Amino acid sequence: MVIIAKKKIDGLWKELMSERPGFLVVLEGIDGSGKSTQARLLARKLRKMGLPVTVLREPTRGKWGRIIRARALQETALNPQEELELFLRDRQDNVRRHLVPALNQGKIVILDRYYFSTMAYQGARGIDPEYIRRQNEAFAPRPDAVFILHLSPAEGLARIHQRKKKDILFEQEKYLKKVEQIFRKIRGRRIYHLEASQSRERINELILRRLIFLLKKKNFLQLDSSRI
Ligand code: ADP
Ligand code: TYD
């Protein structure tokens, strides 16, 4: 009896979750893995299909995002817990002001970094990634799809820095190796791992193919859509 009731509640919950308006797509990966490039390409293609798209990013351009960037330039490093708190504040603000309103308006939100970055980056500084995940999932809407782009830190850094000091890059590479290791271990419903060393066009095609399947499932697109 209890089992049947629980199954019913679970089913109802799943239904309610899938009824949430909007569609949240998250792009994740280390610096230089191609997230912003893919966000741009995706937004362009989805808009061409006549779909309503909003592109957001974290850290944001808002108050907390500005504080995060200013702190990153200072000599004295924040401790991991302080860092975690700043990213959480920035995210709480973004969720409340931008993400939830856009989803409620039925938008497809493309989000360049979300709490998987916190799991990987602050996780690499010693905080338990699962603890970080729980803290975030207490307030942050669950994504409908997460694409994690994988690239070796050396390649990622080579893409973004042409002439940075070798020793800074060495330290950064060591840290990013840990970050990348955590990214590779993140598993879950609708989390997809992609190799980012492929061409931009190929990665975009892989993401788009999966998204179209998921958008149809959520009735964002007609099954026989000819706009694709
Ligand atoms: P991220 O947002 O993950 O830091 P970007 O999208 O800004 O990464 O890409 C970093 C750099 O790498 C940019 O100069 C971009 O043009 C280039 N880039 C992006 N995707 C690819 C790819 N698949 N192959 C080669 N270079 C790429
Ligand atoms: P990035 O996406 O590179 O933003 P921008 O290009 O505007 O500086 O993010 C800045 C850094 O913040 C990047 O190295 C990853 C890091 N980060 C975290 O450490 N934790 C987080 O939760 C997020 C969202 C980002």
The span between the termini is 47 Å
Sheet of most strands: 5 strands, parallel
The CATH architecture name reads: 3-Layer(aba) Sandwich
Give the averaged pLDDT, no decimals: 91
Q: Spans with pLDDT under 50 lasting ≥5 residues?
A: none
Topology, number of strands: 5
List the bound ligands: adenosine-5'-diphosphate, thymidine-5'-diphosphate
Strand residues, percent? 5-15%
Continuous helix count: 9
Proportion of helical residues: 55-70%
CATH topology: Rossmann fold
Based on secondary structure, the structural category is: alpha/beta
Gross morphology = globular
Q: Going by CATH, what is the homologous superfamily?
A: P-loop containing nucleotide triphosphate hydrolases
| Number of structurally distinct domains | 1
List the helices and strands and how they pair.
Layout: H1 2-19, E1 23-29, H2 35-48, E2 53-57, H3 63-73, H4 80-104, E3 108-112, H5 115-121, H6 129-137, E4 145-150, H7 153-160, H8 166-185, E5 191-195, H9 200-217
Parallel strand pairs: 1-3, 1-4, 2-3, 4-5
Helix pairs in contact: 2-9, 3-4, 5-6, 5-8
The chain binds adenosine-5'-diphosphate and thymidine-5'-diphosphate.
Residues 31, 58-59, 87, 113, 117-118, 121-122 line the site of thymidine-5'-diphosphate.
